[in-house]
Design goal:
Elements: E1 2-10, H1 27-36, E2 46-47, E3 56-66, H2 72-82, E4 87-94, E5 107-116, E6 129-131, E7 147-150, E8 165-176, E9 179-186, H3 193-205, H4 211-216, H5 222-229, E10 242-248
Parallel strand pairs: 3-10, 5-6
Antiparallel strand pairs: 1-3, 1-4, 2-3, 5-9, 5-10, 7-8, 8-9
Helix pairs in contact: 1-2
Length: about 250
């Protein structure tokens, strides 16, 4: 019996998120179905992160224990032969005993795509948020997020009463014709944090919200932070534009 680490890519459109749920199709449940066809009888597959309903992944990480004696490449091929078309194993490698893709991770990178258009584009809207009216230059807004801050205005902790402090390592906006791409890397994320950050920045880009409110929402002084928090839109950017791109482990495995 050995522990394996795999990288998963999936189109989240038809998944009710990543984590297994009763009577619902998820990335974890599809992976566990494929593993059972290879003789796996473990209680659960471990995932690096929880993705929302409709959110995609190109770098989700999973780990499991399996008695397999046919090589890593053959394991990848065997899993992919049993997985549906909207999910695939991109890489397989042996992991150290006790490796956990969530607790051993040192950072995660998410990417959000949106485009500005007045007319619906059904093909693009599967993987990006169509925004209209158009947004002004949102590039400078990315400079607000790096550092250790209380992000309570932009998400909720995975566990009730948990800390809302997170450390953002990097953030950036890039424009490609009518498309904007937001990337953010952090040690961890609050529930729905990236989607709320994107929505708030789009609101600034459409002149519906002041950038000063975003800055104040991270202020060290709780009275200023809480006053700004009340002005942050509760709405979320649609899940279709969000992708979990990479999970980093700093060579632990």
């Amino acid at each position: 019996m050995a522990r394996y680490q795999i990288i998963l890519a999936y189109d989240g459109t038809s998944f009710l998120g990543s984590q297994r749920q009763a009577s619902s199709r998820t990335a974890q449940s599809e992976l566990e179905k494929a593993l059972r066809k290879l003789g796996w009888d473990g209680p659960t597959v471990y995932l690096a992160g929880r993705t929302d309903t409709g959110t995609h992944a190109s770098g989700q990480v999973a780990a499991f224990d399996l008695d397999w004696g046919h090589g890593l490449e053959n394991l990848q091929d065997a899993l992919n032969s049993h997985l549906p078309r909207d999910i695939a194993v991109k890489d397989v490698k042996a992991a150290t005993d006790g490796f956990h893709p969530r607790f051993d991770a040192t950072s995660r990178l998410y990417r959000y795509r949106l485009f500005c258009a007045s007319v619906r584009d059904p093909l693009r809207e599967r993987y990006a948020w169509r925004v209209w009216p158009s947004v002004a230059d949102v590039t400078p807004l990315a400079n607000i997020w790096p550092g250790t801050h209380d992000f309570a205005a932009f998400g909720t902790p995975p566990r009730s009463g948990g800390s809302t402090v997170r450390t953002v390592i990097s953030a950036s906006w890039q424009q490609q014709t009518d498309e904007w791409i937001f990337e953010i890397q952090a040690d961890a994320f609050l529930y729905r944090m990236v989607r709320r950050l994107v929505y708030a920045q789009v609101a600034v880009g459409q002149a519906r919200l002041s950038a000063k409110i975003l800055v104040r929402a991270l202020d060290e002084r709780s009275d200023i932070r809480q006053a700004a928090q009340a002005q942050i839109p509760a709405s979320l950017a649609p899940a279709c534009g969000l992708t979990l791109v990479k999970v980093r482990y700093d060579d632990l495995v």
